[in-house]
Amino acid sequence: MSESYLELRRKTGERDRSLREKVMSLEEAAQLVKDGSSVGIGGSTLSRTPMAMVWALIRAGRKGLSCARSITSSEGELLFASGASNHILTSWFSQGIVWGVSRIMRLYTEEKRARFEEWSHMAVGMRFRAGAMGVPFLPMRSMMGSDVLARLPEVRQIDCPFTGDKLVLVPALNPDVALIHVQRCDAYGNAQMDGLQFMDIDLAMAANRVILTTERIVSNDQIRRAPDHTKIPFFTVDAVVEVPFGCAPHECYGVYEPFFKHLDMYAGLLRKDAERGIAGYLERYFYGPKDWAEYLTLLGLEEMLDASRRGRRIYDD
Amino acid sequence: MTTETTTKTGVRNYTASELLAVMASRLLEDGQVVFAGVGIPLLAATLAQRLHAPGLTILFEGGTIGAFVEPGQLPPSTNEQRCTRRANMVLSSTDVLLLLQRGYVDIGFMGGAQIDRHGNLNSSFIGHPDNPTTRLPGTGGGNDIASLTQMIVAMKHEKRRFVEKVDFITSPGFIRGGASRRESGLLAGGMYRVVTDLAVMGFDEETRSMEVLALHPGVGLGDVQDNTGFELLVARDLGTTEPPSERELAALRHLDPDKLYIA
Asked: Which architecture does CATH list for A36-135+173-219+231-315?
């Protein structure tokens, strides 16, 4: 259920919105997310996935998170399989078309161990946008006549009071916390994002708390030299964590592309035996390493260099 | 004009996926604005740009306007940086999807797991949604694209994929046929063409049932019907498509040398 407007305003009013430093570690940021919270996840599919924060939440043993993301890839499989989440609201859920239908998504949804709540891609976006706008819903013209709509009791259909057109109204989504990864931000959380934005700006505005991970922290002076590049304002942000390669093995626009060999290896493990494969993967890459640097070491220097070279290539002629 | 690519012994020198990509690319016209999904649609739209439609504007749900995907650099979804190469603009994914609703898009172009007589697509559940035999990945932007614009669907022609009634309408075609799409509240768009490795199909104006418009080279009407789980209508002026030319196949193989989409 969408919370009431005054409750939303109260929560926002209680946040410290002053221009203050909020840099912390992944472990400290993970403490800001309580079991059972609703969590908006930034990026889409393999792009700008806040993987380091997902990694930290799984390592911290979070349970029962209710997640929402535009399109869900392997991070969703890992959230399900670790028990960190038992509910993902999204428009599409599998590692990626080139790896086929997700065996973990199938296993968890078909055996009803977890819920994959399907909305159209635009509906997810309009729900975050309504949340960002501080209105309880937005009207839209898709999903009508489909069974996607038929399975969504929260949606209302109306006849437009102006034109009489049939419209669907999708309710605002104001997650307890948003996880967003960007290329750079300052210590206050002014975030500059390169390339595809997906729904991240609306998500940041909509959420009651934002944990920002970033490839690098830059000075506030540097941010102020190009304020037009700042996409998320500092007062929506509650934590800033500097995590190089924070999306690995996914992509961060202009910095690195997906680690394809690693993703093929991961898909291979799941193809062989989904449940044991992902358990072994979680053990080796999530629970095993003592910190993020050790995780990156396991991914391997060769793959990191290759992914970086491909990532930076987007700016070459 | 078209070079015959069937060898002297009558054996085709292209795969079903290659045929599908080439036939799909021919349905796009220069100057159109096309919203393309990942896989064969992305590949076919990019192929059309390289061949007969250099002014084709390709949109991706990740937020790209006017992409020119590089040969050998196909993205694993429509949300990675490879999709933005040489693009005119990037928007948020919500805003690029809203362009469909506003009416700026000529053609929506998607693949499909299962389709029915009235062009409804299922990419969500095989079996009953409460107790499915297979949970599929879902709509993505498919529902929005199919709800808001004219659609071309490219898919393999198999009986299990062409069914009387889909188990679940993920992306709406003409719903129950006739005027039911409009009555559902979908005022614009609808299924325009379904292209497969066997034929090109459209939809009857009245009943909104699937109709064979043209057969691919060497394919008989019986082959198409045998691979379809419902009775197809047949156009009075049933045509035959030209086989893929050497130029088309060479351009296609140049775009996807690793056979990421045309496996």
From this structure: 3-Layer(aba) Sandwich (3.40)
